[in-house]
Amino acid sequence: MRKPILSTGLRWLWLVLVVIVVDFASKQWVMNNMMLHETQPLIPFLNLFYAHNYGAAFSFLADKGGWQRWFFAGIALAIVISLLVMMYRNRASQKIANIAYALIIGGAVGNLFDRSYHGFVVDFIDFYVGNWHFATFNIADCGICIGAALVVLEGFFSPNGKQAKQKG
């Protein structure tokens, strides 16, 4: 017998849509209002800086001739499918895990769209301290990082995580 969708973690799919829409809208705004490599200061430690990322995080494999585009797209697709299955298997009440998976899926789909449509990912958030600049990133990356952090935190605070710690 199949479970009703709303009783599963798929109930949180609306959050995937929120991440995708905010990510897409912010990237569109940057592409329509800024020149490539243009910087717009916002506050003393944060700029908008329009960049194209042909690789993965920190431009990993960006200079490898194009094959990495499809490699990273395949990885993103596998992650999205795996997390959707995990959400389906979760109860809707497992909020932290489902929110984490939804944020990761939304971010992965946002960057997957860029990679598939443009051939690169649009990055524009430039965090810095003095002359040190963190790698430029976007809203999709924020969703992925926050989701990953929630997965780690959930491992510490969930009953399953505490049982695993006691056994080990």
| Strands side by side in the biggest sheet | 1-2-3-4
Roughly how much helix do the residues carry, as a percent range? Answer: 55-70%
Q: With helices defined by DSSP (H or I, 4 residues minimum), what is the helix count?
A: 5
Distance between the termini: 36 Å
Q: Major beta sheet, specifics? A: 4 strands, antiparallel
Shape: globular
DSSP summary, beta strand count = 4
Low-pLDDT parts are: 161-168
Strand content: 5-15%
Secondary-structure-based class equals alpha+beta
- How are helices and strands ordered from N to C? HEEHHEEHH
Mean pLDDT, as a whole number?
Answer: 86
Q: Radius of gyration, Cα only, in angstroms?
A: 18 Å
How would you describe the overall organization of this protein?
The chain is of the alpha+beta class. The protein has 5 helices and 4 strands; from the N terminus they run H-E-E-H-H-E-E-H-H. The chain has a 4-stranded antiparallel β-sheet with strand order 1-2-3-4. Helix 2 (67-89) runs antiparallel to helix 3 and helix 3 packs antiparallel against helix 4 (139-157). The longest helix has 23 residues, at 67-89. It is globular and about 50 Å long. The two termini are 36 Å apart.
